[in-house]
Design a protein that fits this description.
alpha/beta; 7-stranded mixed β-sheet; 24 strands; globular; ATP-binding; EC 2.7.1.17; kinase; Carb_kinase_FGGY
């Protein structure tokens, strides 16, 4: 047995590029074992992954955890949001999953918004105006482009649902992840039959929405994992909702997550309905709401610029008047699915380090622009901005966020917050606690606070001006010929 004070739980983060598993002491929050295994994502016009890779990676990650994983009393899966997983009658993938950052469905997104009442009607109904990231648009794209795949589909799942179902044998999801589909109505907290009928999706193909705190099932006999039969399985949730649990967020505390995508969000007691579509009105995993803005281009895009320049990602230099919009994968905030990277203001004396700093500035600008829309009007603007994700410990990221936000920045010491949030959800099944309260008991948000500096208004104004002036270029659909 492991030297733990209380029962052990497992929290999983099945992200875009890898699956991470943590075995956590439910009493103290101590991570007693961990593992990680990679996934592959297609390149080119689409962003797809074979869901079976996620399962194989989960098996590998848990195998790395050793004996501790066998002692777990409960498990929960946090997963990348929005992905469309189509399964046949045997539970096998019909085709690779279309991931959140696949933007092929941008035309379907525009059409769906127009056909069902416009942006305000969608926001009032589902909490969000669907863009190309949302699952409903991916299903519409699939129906138009691969009708044979639609005919072969016997179940539609999200990434975290797929893994949970392989554990339990039951098709379930949670309100947090369901709220990113575009077919779950936040106003009624149920599947929207009119939207489903409009896109030709039978509600019988969808998973049951498990309530916060409810047991999704138990681990079944037939599996390749080290869990005992009967181990409790929590509802799981999407990655951002899991990270919010992992931080033990209270309403009004803003989070900026720097990963493959960039996100800014906060817990709110009020159901969000932003008709501009900038803020997605997601549900969180314990009964409140998680208004969120997301960009497609964050750490990977900036790292790509650094690689093109032949520089280390921290090798930035100040004093630049150059603007670089690193929209290498299209963009979601602002909604520019066909955009490419754009460089403006290049001079003879511009240095590679200044170009790299401009890439950081461009990536952070869009996120901070959405911050005021994410926060409730009465939120305290002096509360430190929690900086999380893979880029959060990077000095260049920290200083860019400080300079462009003008806010104090806190960097939690805890790593793998999505997996920790999933672990807190699993622990809540055993203790009866709110998972966010579990995370606060574990003190997961503890970390140094970087004092506020004066906001760089000149840089913000310059970037906004270039973005506005370049709109016709950024909105132009690419010539495929």
């Amino acid at each position: 047995m492991s030297a733990a004070e209380g029962p052990l739980v497992v929290g999983v983060d099945s992200s875009t590029q890898s699956t991470k598993a943590l075995v956590v002491d439910a009493s103290t929050g101590q991570v007693v074992a961990s593992g990680q295994a990679p996934h592959t994502v297609s390149t080119g016009a689409s962003r797809e992954s074979d869901p079976r890779q996620w399962w194989d990676a989960l098996c590998e990650a848990l195998d790395q955890c050793g004996e501790a994983a066998r002692e777990a009393a409960a498990v929960s899966i946090g997963g990348q949001q929005h992905g469309l997983v189509t399964l046949d009658a045997h539970g096998d993938p019909v085709r690779p999953a279309l991931l959140w950052n696949d933007v092929q469905s941008a035309p379907q997104a525009r059409r769906l918004v127009e056909e069902l009442g416009g942006p305000k009607a969608w926001a009032d109904r589902t909490g969000s105006v669907p863009g190309a990231s949302f699952t409903v648009t991916k299903w519409a794209w699939l129906a138009e482009n691969e009708p044979e795949a639609v005919r072969a589909t016997a179940a539609v799942r999200l990434p975290h649902d797929y893994l949970t179902e392989r554990l339990t044998g039951q098709g379930t999801t949670d309100r947090g992840d369901a709220s990113g589909t575009g077919w779950w109505a936040s106003a009624t907290e149920s599947y929207d039959e009119e939207i489903l009928a409009h896109v030709g999706l039978d509600p019988a193909l969808l998973p049951r929405v498990v309530r916060p705190g409810e047991v999704a099932g138990t681990v079944r006999d037939a599996h390749d994992l080290p869990f005992s039969k009967g181990t409790l399985v929590a509802p799981g949730t999407g990655d951002n909702a899991a990270a919010a649990l992992g931080l033990g967020l209270r309403p009004g505390t803003p989070v900026l997550s720097l990963g493959t995508s960039g996100t800014v969000y906060a817990v709110s007691k009020r159901r969000p309905t932003d008709p501009t579509g900038t803020v997605a009105g997601f549900a969180d995993a314990h009964g409140d709401w998680l208004p969120l803005a997301c960009t497609l281009n964050c750490t990977l895009a900036v790292d790509r610029i650094a690689a093109l320049l032949g520089r280390d990602r921290e090798a930035v230099e100040p004093g630049t008047a150059v603007t670089l919009l690193p929209f290498l994968d299209g963009e979601r905030t602002p909604n520019l699915p066909h955009a490419t990277g754009l460089l403006h203001g290049l001079r003879h004396d511009t240095t590679p380090g200044q170009l790299l700093q401009a890439a950081y500035d461009g990536a952070v600008h869009s996120l901070l622009g959405a911050l005021d829309l994410v926060l409730d009007e009465d939120a305290d603007r002096t509360v430190p901005l929690l900086l999380i994700g893979g880029g959060a410990r990077g000095r260049a990221w920290q200083e860019t966020v400080r300079r462009l936000s003008g806010r104090p920045v806190q960097v939690p010491e805890a790593k793998e917050l999505v997996a920790l949030g999933a672990a807190a959800q699993a622990a809540g099944l055993l203790t009866g606690e709110d998972p966010a309260a579990v995370a606060r008991r574990w003190d997961t948000a503890r970390g140094p606070v970087l004092e506020a500096v004066q906001r760089d208004e000149a840089a913000l104004t310059r970037i906004a001006g270039v973005l506005s002036d370049a709109a016709p270029l950024l909105e132009r659909e690419p010539d495929r010929h």
